[in-house]
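Hi all, long-time lurker, first post. I run a small reading group and we've been trying to get comfortable going from sequence to structure in the token notation. Rather than ask abstract questions, I figured I'd post a concrete chain and ask someone more experienced to write out its structure so we can walk through it together at our next meeting. Sequence below, copied exactly:
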Amino acid sequence: LLFLFVKRDFITIYKQTVLGPLWFFIQPMLTTLMFSLVFGHIAGISTDGTPKILFYLGGLAFWNFFAANLTSTSNTFIANQGIFGKVYFPRLITPLSIIISNLFKFGIQFFLFVIVFSYYFIFTDEIPGSLNSFTLLLPILVFITAILGLGFGLIISSLTTKYRDLRFLLQFGVQLWMYATPVIYPLSTLSPKLKSIAILNPMTSIVETFRFGFLGSGTFNWFGLIYTTIFAIVVLIIGTLVFNKTEQNFMDII
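-- Answer (accepted) --
Happy to help. Here is the structure in token form:
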């Protein structure tokens, strides 16, 4: 059932598109080029001495993965009310299938990052401090990002069965959250006061640790990573409990 839902997600999104899965490459590249132009060249925001395209591409890979998990799973009950009302199956299968689908998309975008990274690593000396031992934390960072987006998505999905306005606030909130995360700027450029506030954002340590491991830039903090891990686990537990409680009578509410 999980496999069928994952297959359905891919077919639904790209069945009638001309380029199909190539959009997995096109979207992050266009966004990266736009960020490089607007924030890198026009606004002159620092990228900690790393190539702008790698700086933005790496940050966007993780942010897009998190945002896709959050926004897609937050619509679980409303988007699947037809099938939920006809047959019983473990409802958590649906959001889990979304996470797996997005994981494949993240893998494609990360592969794009690896291609660009390999070019700079082999043919230039602009990232001499890259690929340290913290690169091995990549699977952990991906896992934390997945459960963080899933946990928040489950909570919001449960709330939107009663409060539909949250669907409109979510898109706006995700955009604001991205600007509160060091995706377009490095954490090192913030003042000490703002830095202490930014580290409370659970996505901050994920993006910064990734850049620190692969690009040799960014700020690594064990406290921030442990805090993010605990935060994500707590959110996932709360989200699962709320989701399981909501599924018992959500059809009456909808």
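A couple of things your group might point at:
The chain has a mean pLDDT of 85.
The longest helix spans residues 93-123.
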